[in-house]
Amino acid sequence: MKFDAQDCLLVKKTKLTQTIYDFRLKNADLAEITKPGQFAHLLVPGKTLRRPISVCDVRDDIIRIVFEVRGEGTRILSETEEGSMINMICPLGKGFDIPKDKKVIFIGGGIGVPPMLYSAKTAGSNSIVINGFRDKSAVILTQDFRDIGCRLIETTDNGSYGIHGFVTDPLKEVIDSADMICACGPTPMLKNIAAMAKDHGKECFVSLEQRMACGIGACLGCAVGIDRGDGSLTYKHVCKDGPVFRAEEVIW
Ligand SMILES: Cc1cc2nc3c(=O)[nH]c(=O)nc-3n(C[C@H](O)[C@H](O)[C@H](O)COP(=O)(O)OP(=O)(O)OC[C@H]3O[C@@H](n4cnc5c(N)ncnc54)[C@H](O)[C@@H]3O)c2cc1C
Ligand code: FES
To answer: Which residues line ligand 1 (CB under 6 A)?
Structure first.
């Protein structure tokens, strides 16, 4: 497979919270082939290694990414001016395979919420979305999810907005109504969701985050332990074989 790096025009930049940015990047060719749950590998000026950011949404020729400033790379990225070009390799990885005929619960935790937007939009208004945040100041994309027309449930850890608790609290109430669960967020959250899905006999897919270097399966930098199906261990690349994996095959 050939991986092309392409320049994308930053047409709109919005600051969603103190630390989270929303970029709309124009590139018709990439927008056309990008699927929910895939990611872009962005070149950051002055950095050798690209930074992986999930695709939040695709509309016409625009790819939208939403990212949090965590370190130097994302800080530099956040300072990009509208009208500038950002070089990225996209789409990368295997995303969510969303069947049209199933009722899906999408669950996002913190900065794992953005990739759920394109995924839930693809599934349609029959889906349920549960998004969880640390507190009110971290809540993002509420109106975007409402616009899909799906049932939206929001939680905060401290109760300052939405339901007081973790995403797994409202999940208990709705899990039996769904055929499938797709989730992205912190590892402890994914691990608990995977356990609940197993208990309730529901198919579950999780999007894993791992530090990455090449992003294309060439460096072994993003290996994750996977159960071969018989209890024995193998390793897969989060960048190439994932980031979405069947929850039951992940060794937590
Ligand atoms: C497939 C994938 C999709 C992602 N999607 C998004 C997204 O949609 N929005 C978003 O905000 N972030 C996303 N991330 C995380 C993002 O790539 C990192 O936050 C970013 O690379 C940090 O770069 P930095 O130079 O700012 O920080 P660095 O200086 O490299 O590190 C700063 C801090 O961030 C932590 N960190 C760095 N890389 C990662 C990582 N890959 N996962 C977890 N923690 C990390 C480090 O432990 C460190 O504490 C994604 C990561 C992956 C692997
Ligand atoms: S980041 Fe190089 S193999 Fe995945």
So the answer is: 39, 51-54, 66-68, 70-74, 111, 114-115, 209-212, 243
CB atoms within 10 A of CB 223: 15
If you measure from the C-alpha of residue 236 to the centroid of ligand 2, how many angstroms do you get, rounded to a whole number?
A: 10
Please give the number of the atom of ligand 1 that sits closest to the Cα of 73: 25
Answer yes or no: is 230 within a domain. no
Q: What is the CATH number of the domain that holds 152?
A: 3.40.50.80
Same domain, yes or no: 43 and 135: no
CA distance 170 to 177: 12
Q: Are residues 126 and 31 located together in one domain of the fold?
A: no
Pocket test for ligand 1, best of 68, 69, 70 (most atoms within 8 A of CB): 70
pTM value is 0.95
Q: Which domain holds residue 37?
A: 5-92
Whether 30 and 79 share a structural domain: yes
- Could you say which DSSP state residue 28 is in? H
CA of 112 to the centre of ligand 1 (A): 11
Q: Are 109 and 185 in contact (CB under 8 A)?
A: yes
Write the pLDDT tens digit of every residue in 114-145.
999 999 999 988 899 999 999 999 999 999 99
> Do 247 and 199 form a contact (C-beta atoms < 8 A)?
no
